[in-house]
Design goal:
The chain has 301 residues and is of the alpha/beta class. The chain has ten helices and eleven strands. The strands form two sheets. Strands 1, 2, 6, 7, 8, 9, 10 and 11 form an eight-stranded mixed sheet that branches. α8 packs across α9. The longest helix is centred in the last third of the chain and has 32 residues. The radius of gyration is 22 Å and the shape is globular. The protein binds ligand AHZ.
Length: 301
């Protein structure tokens, strides 16, 4: 049976590849090896990132922009937690599921930095497909040695100590989605010095971070995004990107939710510059802490 299958496979092969073996294209491998390669790496990542410098919740355009900024700091460890199997949030398409991504200046400088081509239209630029931006920034973020993305994993809650956000509580997204149908399925935890919440506007999973701050009594309200006004919205989102409570910076459309700012609809510059600002704020905090720790160690020596 197996020999017949192998012969059929050989008959079906049209192209010769370099490996040279007569009866196969691919180098041999044991299934257990594949399993161990995946599981040991994943478990080591979970072990290493149980304490991260920065945790980014949500890998849409704002979360990825924050991660890209932090990729410039190899000594800052960054875990991205994305509830979806496919990271990227709403940035795979422009507005109303059209392809082009409109980016108002000066956010074209961020595109220059990431290396995304665009058509210059004066006050704004156009990326020919939003997926070009998202795939390019994601490839750079994922290749950065200091960054690990855990996708298909949801932030379900926060670690809060002395009124400071000190990490996230996570679960496999499929588990998170089934808390109502199963008895208690306890979560995992990752500690961090800073959490960047980039969960997008309200929706089935959106605005999770600020909604949890409200329900935990750490902020009074998240009034929700106001109606669309591109010109007001984009400046507001970037200007209001800040550490909302100690240990948690909010970026992207989640800023509109917590501040009651207008939405901008299908223009993405504010997501890029808000994410970049969140990354810079987080980096400044961590680098200051690292410097203080270094000085304390030097003084003790
Ligand atoms: O899956 C979500 C998405 O990828 C993820 N996310 C949400 N809740 C999560 C949770 N744990 C882990 N609890 C979670 N991940 O967060 C990501 C949010 O991406 P997004 O594209 O929705 O938000 P953004 O703020 O990066 O970009 C918004 C883009 C918009 S919406 C808009 C408008 O409606 O007017 N305009 C723009 C430019």
């Amino acid at each position: 049976m197996r020999r017949a299958f192998t012969a059929a496979c050989r008959r079906g092969v049209q192209v010769r590849f370099a490996s040279g073996a007569e009866d196969r294209l691919f180098e041999p491998i044991r299934e257990a090896v594949v399993s161990r390669e995946m599981t040991t790496r994943y478990m080591k990542d979970m072990y290493d990132f149980a304490e991260a410098d920065v945790i980014i919740s949500g890998a849409g355009s704002a979360g990825l922009a924050a991660a890209y900024e932090l990729s410039k700091h190899p000594n800052i460890s960054v875990a991205i937690i994305e509830q979806s199997v496919a990271p990227g949030g709403g940035a795979w398409l422009g507005g109303q599921l059209f392809s082009a991504m409109i980016v108002r200046k000066p956010a074209h400088e961020f595109l220059d930095d990431v290396g995304v081509e665009y058509e210059d239209r004066g006050a704004y630029v156009v990326v020919k497909h939003a997926a070009l931006f998202t795939s390019t920034i994601m490839s750079k973020v994922l290749a950065a040695p200091n960054i690990k993305m855990f996708n298909a994993t949801a932030v379900e809650d926060f670690i809060v100590r002395e009124d400071k956000v000190a990490g996230v509580v996570t679960n496999w997204s499929l588990v998170t989605q089934n808390h109502d149908t199963q008895s208690c399925m306890d979560p995992n935890v990752l500690e961090s010095k800073v959490v960047i919440s980039a969960c997008g506007h309200d929706g089935p999973m959106g605005a999770f971070g600020v909604k949890r701050l409200v329900s935990n009594g750490m902020i009074e309200a998240a009034p929700g995004m106001k109606c669309l006004d591109m010109n007001t919205a984009e400046d507001a989102i970037v200007n209001l990107t800040r550490e909302v409570v100690p240990g948690m910076i909010v970026t992207g459309m989640e800023v509109a939710e917590v501040e009651g700012a207008p939405r901008m609809g299908p223009t993405f510059g504010a997501m890029m510059l808000s994410g970049q600002k969140a990354g810079k704020l987080a980096a400044a905090k961590i680098l200051a802490e690292q410097q203080a720790e270094g000085e304390a160690q030097a003084a003790a020596a």
